[in-house]
Amino acid sequence: MSTESPARAVSYLPGFTTLATETDDVALPVLGTLPEWLTGELIRNGPARFEAGAQAYRHWFDGQAMLHRFAFGDGEIRYTNRFLDTPGERAAKAGRIEYSEFATDPCRSIFARYVTRFTGGTEFSGNAGVNVVPMDGGMAALTEVPIAVRFDPETLATVGINDYRDSLDGQVTTAHPHQAPGTGDLINYVLRFGRHSEYLVYRQRPGTMTRELIASIPDAQPGYLHSFGITEDYVVLAVFPFVVNPLSLLLHGKPFIENYRWRPELGTKFVVIRLSDGSVRGTYQAEPFFAFHHVNAYVEGNELVVDASSYTDASVIDALYLDHLRAGDPIPKPVPTRYRMDLDGATVRSEPLSQLAFELPGIAYGSHNGRAYQYAYGVGCRNTGASTGQDFFNQLVKLDVTDRTERVWHEAGCYPGEPVFVPAPGGDGEDDGVVLSVVLDSTGGHSFVLVLDAGTWQEIARADVPHPIPFGFHGHYLSGGTA
pLDDT class for 445, splitting at 50, 70, 90? Predict the structure, then answer.
């Protein structure tokens, strides 16, 4: 660990500090001029409560979920934030950690752990703090267990659990369902642990809570998959060698993620599944790597192209424990990487798309998800070494994956969150629109919402929030109140 000045090491500390204040529909002062067509809501999700009385959550992913709404219209921005009303949040607010999270476990018995993890029992925190998506005619907050917490997108009030109306069961899922290109069906999977664990890939048609099984993929050593890829014809599971023996989840008495082990000798396998009938098109072997996020995937001729923000191993999960983050310890560098596989072959070729750190990626999703594309947007860090160093993610990056060039937005003391691309009405390009990001200003002691012209990558407006917003994960823009 570097011994540089403590001031630099903790400059982003408000991003990992509890925000207890809830705000209801306040107007934010706008500096600059918003596009007249920008009418809708950016809804963000992420952790905002990191303690429960004298107890503390251990990992960034464990904090209790808070929703943030930025409403755009008539040249104004209005802001609301509210905790997701869940059993875990209610217990934490009362000073207790009563439910297991990603890397925090309140030391319950093996029997209680069995009930929760393997039988779908009712002992769950409901802490859906990773993503938000349109679902069943409304909006739902998601996490990595198969629950969907419905909320009102206008007030952010929690409505309740969206119950799935099917018999599909499993213990783990992703908070990153994809909309199938062409149909709008939500595609995702649940992982069912057992002697013969299975990835159950499913389709959820618009306006329903019924999941239809597409494919069952057995795996004796299931991996931790935070996301997956999709094309017009295929679902792509990248199974990294960060794997678990399901019995460990019952017997070892450790928090969920601490049961996983890095096994580089297994390599990474890409399992490619046909959306049409669930058959496996092929399994392709690649070098060991790890990723939280896929950028995009598409077919080019007879090759499948998969882009991801890749790490050399899974040590980034340890780096995201709160004590490491608050101490300014280095974070492994995510490299945007392209993986190519001949669909009639068996191996995978890889190459970096940039040497800049690149995480929380986004694209012009509505027009280019699952299709060939040119631009990706992400967060990065000015440190170009082996890690992000002590200054966390401090810049926004626009990456041209065709000519491998980058544009960067950076401001001293500022830490941007996931960039969300919003297309201009009638726009004819992947960067014809704006990019929105919620930025922590460590110098000013508050956050602001930033509006960049996606084409020029220049700031056109910002609006200060009256307090710092803890670092979140993912968001969704509703254009004029529709997805």
Answer: very high
Indicate yes or no: pTM above 0.70. yes
Structure tokens at 435: 């990019």
Residue 119 pLDDT more than 80?
no
Q: State how far the Cα of 93 lies from the Cα of 45, in Å rounded to an integer.
A: 18
CB 195 within 8 A of CB 218: no
275-297 b/e (C-beta count within 10 Å ≥ 16 → b): beebeebbebebebbbbbbbbbb
Whether 460 and 17 have beta carbons less than 8 Å apart is answered as: no
C-alpha pair distances (Å), 228 with each of 20, 115, 173, 187, 460: 33, 28, 11, 10, 33
Cβ atoms of residues 159 and 86 within 8 Å: no
Q: Contact 209/164 with Cβ under 8 angstroms? A: yes
Q: Can you say how many angstroms the Cα of residue 246 is from the centroid of all Cα atoms in its chain?
A: 24
- Provide the token pair at 298: 């598409």
Q: Which residues pair with 387 in a beta bridge?
A: 332
- CA 164 to chain CA centroid, nearest Å: 22
User: Taking the CB of residue 325, how many other CB atoms lie within 10 A of it?
Assistant: 20
Nearest of 345, 334, 335 to residue 301 by alpha carbon:
345
Do strands 51-52 and 55-56 pair parallel, antiparallel, or not at all (unpaired)?
A: antiparallel
